[in-house]
Amino acid sequence: MKHALKHMLMAAAALSWVGFAAEAADFGKVGKPLPPNGPVPKVILISLDGAAPRFVDKYIAPGVKGIGLLRSVGSHAAQNITATPSLTAVSHIAIATGSTAVHNDIPSNTFQTVAGTLSSSISGFAAPIGGYTISPLGPTANPTAKPLWVTLRENGRSVVTATWAGGDGADIGINGTVVQHAVPTRTVNDTVPFGAFGGLSAQGFDLTASAFAPDQTIQDQLAGAGHPSFSPVEVTTAPLETLYCSPTTSSTCGTTGDFGRTLQYTMKAAAIDTTDDGVVNYDTLVFFDAGQPIPAGPFRHPSTGPAYVRPHKSAPFFFEGSGEVVGAAYYLVNLAPDLSQVRFARYGANFIPRNTAVLDDVDDTNDHVGFWAPQDDYRIPERLSAGFSNFADTDLEDIFDDQVKTFIAYQTRLALRAIDQHPDADLVMLYFEEPDGSSHQFLLTDPRQATNPTDATTIGANQDKAKIRRYENHVRFAYETANDAVDAVIRKIGTRADGEPRSNVIVVSDHGFAPFHTSVNATNLLKAALIAKGFDGSLVNTAVTIRTSGPAANVYINLAGRESGGTVDTATYTALVAAIADYFRSAIDPNANFNYSLSKKRIFTQVTAAGRLRPAGLLHQRPGRPGFGRRLRHHGGRL
Predict the structure, then answer these.
(1) What pTM was estimated for this model as a whole?
(2) Which of 33, 356, 426, 501 maximizes the CB count within 10 A of its CB?
(3) How far apart are alpha carbons 490 and 484 in whole angstroms?
(4) Cα separation of 259 and 275, whole Å?
(5) In angstroms, rounded to a whole number, what is the distance separating the alpha carbons of residues 547 and 638?
(6) What phi, psi does 24 have (nearest 5°)?
(7) DSSP conformation letters of 341-377
(8) What distance in Å separates the CA atoms of residue 493 and residue 428, rounded to the nearest whole number?
(9) Of the candidate ranges 121-130, 227-236, 517-526, the one whose mean pLDDT is the lowest
(10) Contacts (Cβ under 8 Å, ≥6 apart) of 415
């Protein structure tokens, strides 16, 4: 066991702390700690997505709680070997398998599969671990890597994976053919898949008093539900929106009744005054389905009843009866006491995939933790979702922070529920999304970053210094919130008299973080490469394509006899790989405002062409020399 975990940690952890761990403020409804004389998990592995050691040192106080406590009573690694490319799916599968992508077959967050169509792609979170056969297309009897949990369970050990990549209970398919079965590779004793989009994007609302009118019926219903108002209840005269969900798993939710979405939710808002002070000052909005009488409660997960929301707070709302168990939440930005301004957001809808092999675990989570909570949504602060044009930047940032706080609290409750269900597990693998989401959105530490994304001149001396300071606080908040989650796990298992956790607690990260300041249009770059080397630019997306994820760009050739619908012969394949690789190696960024950190101004630091072709049916190649991605293989013309 110790040797396996040591090998796993060396594979991909960007940082790690081992505590052999404490009392703090309540977080995520920890509930009762495990009995002090009862069993506890032998090993708990916690991944904090995107946690960079320099920021952990900066934002998390030593010796207090969570990671700080582990560092004071345990040990930490000064330097680890990270996976390449350092992406979430790549690194988590590397941690789970103890191998790099050259063996585990997960080379990126999004990539092309051999034998797939050129227009298709697959997520690294839902891709076959350890390979598959091409001819015939299907599972391999000899995977080149397998998750640690498979070996442990083969030896009678018990494992829990709470939203860990690869532990999702899903059958993985390519071209409609299953190439990896859920059992045994993707299931453990308790498997909770990561959540999925429920069909409704976030929406902003900006109303005034003219949108409301008194409604005695709703006032009586609210009073009957235990929510009286000391001023006349004002209700939106028109629906905020009409939403639809499917009562079965054939579809999720949407803004139309298509695709079997026969359940209708006519959403309205009611303003109530909860202060008995003789003054009309509305302080709470109630979001409810006008098609149903307001229920009194109490409510049992996943049900929530109406969402009762005060300014700068959010509350969940479950789409009752939805087959996929879909829910969202409402956040109230501003509620003027006289309703002169009423501004709020409905978060995007989410659900936990109801994968057949782990349906009992999914149902248990929905019933005891609740439906999948809304995650931090970059489309809101970037105003990509509808209805947020009039919201102030600070309002949108507050919304994002609320999503960080409420989602990590949800993940924490989910993790603690899994521990309660399996207190004697040999290995518990927990994943927390922060500080990755906030770092993507708010890491503003480079003079080349435009503080106004729509104004390229807001770099260098023209950066908004107040925004830089504000953004740092958001990043700090994400680290502190993630640390609260670690601390909640420690308090769940309890500590010994000397302060050490009763379980072996290991905290790792999948990758660190660097600021983003320049974007490259990968498709345009690929087209330029073809033209510069004498090929027709129209070959893009017909004979050759590119997939990008963060720092990784992978090019694929539509090889005849291998890819579904492949058109490129062997000679042209070889010529394309050589030509595109040569162009990418010499491609530069000519803009002096941004290229000064690039070696010889070159866009790519490493470009690796695919190895020689193998006969159809032989998916795997022998490992090559160390290099980019440890010589990533067999996914087409990778560069």
Answers:
(1) 0.91
(2) 501
(3) 10
(4) 45
(5) 10
(6) -160, 180
(7) -EEEEEPPPEE----GGGHHHHHHHHHHT-SPPPPP-
(8) 12
(9) 517-526
(10) 162, 428, 430, 485, 489
